[in-house]
Amino acid sequence: MDDRKFAIFATMCTALLVPAPRELAAQLVSGRFEAGQYTVSDGVLPMSAMRFAPTFQFDFPHVRLTAHGAALLSEQNLQIADGIVSGTFTSPTVYGVRAEMIGNASRAVDQRSLGSDQVDVQTRIHVPFRQAGGMWFGGGVAKPWRVAVISSADVLDGGVWGRLGDAAAKFGIATLTATFTNFSFSKVASVQDSNSVLSCGVAAATNLPASAALADDTGGGTCERQSRFSDLEAVLQWEVGPLELSAQSGYRLGDSYDVTPDTRQWTSGRATIWLNERIAIIGGGGRQPALPLRGLPARNFGMAGLVIAYSPVSKSTVPVSMPHAVLVKKFEMQPGTGDMRKIVIRVGGVERVDVMGDFSDWSPLTLVRRGRDLWELNVPVSPGVHHINVRVDGGPWMAPPGVPTMHDPYSGDVGLIVIPR
Amino acid sequence: MTRFFASLRRAPRGFASLAAGALLLLGALPAAGQDPFSRLDPTSRNIIDVVMDSALVAGLPNRSILSRALEGIAKKADNRRIVDAVRRRLVSLRTARAMLGPIGDDELEAAASVLEAGARPEQLERFRRRTTGRNDLEAFTVWADFLARGIPKDEAFSAINKLWQDGADDAIFHSLWNNVQSDILQGLSPGMALQNRIREAPTRPPTSAGKPPEGS
């Protein structure tokens, strides 16, 4: 990595820690920065390096923009760098169903190869069940570049998720997610390229399964074969107090031409211990699957490091935006200047918190994430009795804890707040 | 089987187009109504207008009626329920005014909430005679909460009335609420929790204690 690129990367990381724009962009920005020792072995070259991984996230009511990067630096040389920019548009929930459109653009740079670029677009339909579980399904297209042997790929995915417990429970929240993702694409390879994924020679053809469609092009220089494999993956995430644990395990289905033995199954784990609202220790390790579309091999890894959270971007195990069945741990309305009041809510493991009440003419107001589980918002509230509701991640409106409540006329509950004169 | 896989492979693009269309349609739905009342049918809107006018004529805070309607719209209640809630609010406000006489809008709204929570009008009337400047918002709020938690109406009234007559301030009412809801969360029955806590609730010394002797 030359000095200029390193300076740009370092500047981006440092910018995360500058609090100046916080008030200006507080409604939208969250970010975190991970740094630590990373050991990786992908069968080519075992490597131990420093890993830097910044993440930015902008949240609008129905749009989320995320930028994530990771770089492995060893002796001031870039070994592997990976960056992805994502945008997700989420529709309002209609008849219990919500839809998402997702676009990703990514670039991977590997000192030992050309690296790869990829653009993909996906749509998903998500059906939550009582905010404690749900299922989704969807599909899309991924277009890789610089991975010479692979054309665009069709992707089908679906999954189910379920959640046990809540943020206030003694044993915290546990979320189990199971996903199925099917990839199908064409591999294009040179007939003479014996090192490519596929050779079109007679020897290779005799070993091909019946489902393989082999076609020599008119020039006789390349051949094309339809490939398909599917990933079955289960992810368990458990949050209890300041501890976050996650484990994932997966199995790749497909014939031996599409799935090599060393990438057939994988398991990894990760632990995060939050020392306070902004700093956490992380550690983990395991095996990551190969990403053929991006030309990335399977690898073993181990890591230990530090997270500095500008405002933590939660690592959701469920790859769809979803309402959570959680209890708000704490609610306060603190006095401010004049009629202004600061609403302070503590709730972990969620990505969005809204309030509404007579003081907002019952229009939802989104709180700003100020820490791992801390959400705040300044609103004008006049003296008197006010009715208020809270919701997390677009779930049902509920009365906040720690204040008197009563039933509203619409089969729900509402909190009552007295603001003295 | 081969055809199945072939169709499976073709599906994503078709599915993506279909889902994208559905997504755009879903996204366009909420843009239709910037005015929250546009979600209501004309008849319901007219009824709400009439109810608000009635409140205005009667000198009642019609913002409370408006708020009730907006709450229903925000919570996606159907038209009938919104109209019922708005009508009920008007009746509660009228009754509270009749029971308590001329009081501030905030207290009137809090008292109306107590009635809607299940208190009887004659119970509310006991709070009619009040010290000038005294604020009953906290007392009414705690009362409404007790009723919502299932504490028997007479026991809730009796406890609130006792504290009120003893001159309890907001802090005492809030402390009582805090203790009772804590006991309920730990498994005590609502009525029992209140009975236990009301016995130990402190009362403010009578205000006459510091009053100079008559004739001085």
Number of strands of chain B: 0
Biggest sheet statistics of chain B: none
- Continuous helix count of chain B: 10
Tell me, what is the CATH class of the largest domain in chain A? Mainly Beta
- Gyration radius of chain A (Cα, Å) is 24 Å
Shape of chain B: globular
Succession of helices and strands of chain A: HEEEEEEEEEHEEEEEEEEEEEEEEE
Q: Indicate the CATH topology of the largest domain in chain A.
A: Porin
Largest interface: A-B, 51 and 51 residues
The number of helical runs of chain A is 2
Sheet with most strands of chain A: 14 strands, antiparallel, barrel
CATH superfamily of the largest domain in chain A: monomeric porin ompg
Uncertain residue ranges of chain B:
1-12, 23-33, 205-216
- Mean residue pLDDT of chain A: 76
Amino- and carboxy-terminal Cα gap of chain B: 107 Å
Mean pLDDT of chain B comes to 80
Quote the distance from N terminus to C terminus of chain A.
Answer: 62 Å
Helix vs. strand class of chain B = mainly alpha
Fraction of residues in helix of chain B: 55-70%
Sum this structure up briefly.
Chain A is mainly β and 421 residues long. Chain A contains two helices and 24 strands.
Structure, explained:
The complex is a heterodimer of chains A (421) and B (216). Chain A has 421 residues and is mainly beta. Chain A folds into two domains: 309 residues, Porin (Beta Barrel); 90 residues, Immunoglobulins (Immunoglobulin-like, Sandwich). Helices cover 5% and strands 57% of the residues of chain A. In chain A, the strands form three sheets. Chain A has a 14-stranded antiparallel beta barrel with strand order 1-2-3-4-5-6-7-8-9-11-12-13-14-15. In chain A, strand 13 and strand 14 form a beta hairpin. Chain A is elongated. Chain B is mostly helical and 216 residues long. Chain B has two domains: 85 residues, no CATH class; 72 residues. Helices cover 69% and strands 0% of the residues of chain B. Chain B has ten helices and no strands. In chain B, helix 3 packs antiparallel against helix 4, helix 4 crosses helix 5 and helix 5 runs parallel beside helix 7. The radius of gyration of chain B is 26 Å and the shape is globular.
